[in-house]
Amino acid sequence: MEINDQERWARVKGRLKAEVGDDVFSSWFARMDLEGVNNDTVRLSVPTRFLKSWVQSHYGDRVLNCWQAEEGKIQRIELTVRSAVLRTNATKPAANGQAAPFETRMAKPGADEPRQPGHQSAMTNDALGGSPLDARLTFENFVVGRSNTLAHAAAKQVAVARRGDSVMFNPLYIHAGVGLGKTHLLHAVTWAGNAGGERKVLYLTAEKFMYGFVSALKTHTALAFKEALRGIDVLVIDDLQFLQGKNIQAEFCHTLNALIDAGRQVVIAADRPPTDLENLDDRVRSRLAGGLVVEMGPLGEELRLEILKGRIAAAKSHHESFTVPDEVVEFIAKSVTHNGRDLEGALNRLLAHSKLTGQPVTLEMAEREVRDLIRPQEPKRVKIEDIQRIVARQYNVSRSDLLSSRRTANVVRPRQVAMYLAKTLTLRSLPEIGRRFGGRDHTTVLHAVRKIEGLVGTDSALADEIELLKRQLQE
Questions:
Q1: pLDDT tens track for 14-43
Q2: Does the predicted TM-score (pTM) go above 0.70?
Q3: Measured between alpha carbons, how far is 171 from 290 in angstroms, rounded to an integer?
Q4: Where are the beta strands (DSSP E) in 85-209?
Q5: 3-106 carries CATH number 3.30.300.180
């Protein structure tokens, strides 16, 4: 490579730094290398797809103008993602004049090609490493029932909003147990929000958010990662309970605040309410609780029946001969009660048996195939964490309050009730229960148990509360 090309590149970088400032330059251009100059084309490379997508979308014209100021004949910039292969073949022209892998032209001002609807959102998802979306999880395929009506309505409101509309619920926080439909709603919001191409909607699992942040730190593009996230119109985060690490949580908090303060929408799902996410910073939990918090409850029998009918209709569109008698549908809806994934699993077993053996679906066959999914007789194994969570919710305190040393009346009674339930509903010993309640002595637990036992006999309101709590824990 001729030295004068490198000298020109050094002068171009000087121009860029003067125009955009040191901070922006270090984020976007410090790791950009010159691969070669060929006639009217400059070939540059960057280390990540994220940098490539962002630079060509936001700084393409500026890079081209800076090169033209140094060398008037330059007409286009080609940007590639560096790899060992690209390094080796950087100076070789691609076969048949086609662009090399990952190579994308930066058009001159005014020469942009027409974009398809949703192009910008698709680019943003790709650049930021958005988590994959399931094409089946749309609003059209979501079955609404009493336990999820509010969550569905709120999600639909977010999805149909337009850029510039006032944000009604921010953040929208949906929590539910496994297999009750929260991820379905989040995918539906993302699909519907991106459909018009007007807004940038990004769906990320907490794991993907953590991975993206750590990768940005390793490649020295953290500032760029933050700027890109904060340019999203609707940020959708799933499985927030898995968000770990003080630095990552701090960055999530800053991003959350920046988006909400800017009037951008945030939608979050987790397996428990914000107050029960003890691993999150208090500031994050407070901000989450300040939005609309919606719980999706267990699937009732009617809802399970409608879900099954919808799944059977979808299966028949691909397998015309697949027929499930009404008595079998009703049997599964009544017997498979845990969650929607068990329902789908049951139906998949019937379909597989029917297709592989050629035998029709019968009630006898269904009873045999799904017997391990039927768990009505099995008593639920109650966990101390569940007791603490449900008691805290019932008495409007946090789980951390129950574990703390606070002695105020509004905390002492719920703590004693929780210890009592832990002793009566689990096989844990008094010392172990004490350890799980902030490291207390077993005599403290024994005192709480005896106290509640004595009160239950004289206080009918407390007795009713405890029965309600037991039913919730054993559902």
A1: 888 888 777 677 767 878 888 888 888 888
A2: no
A3: 8
A4: 104-106, 172-175, 201-205
A5: yes
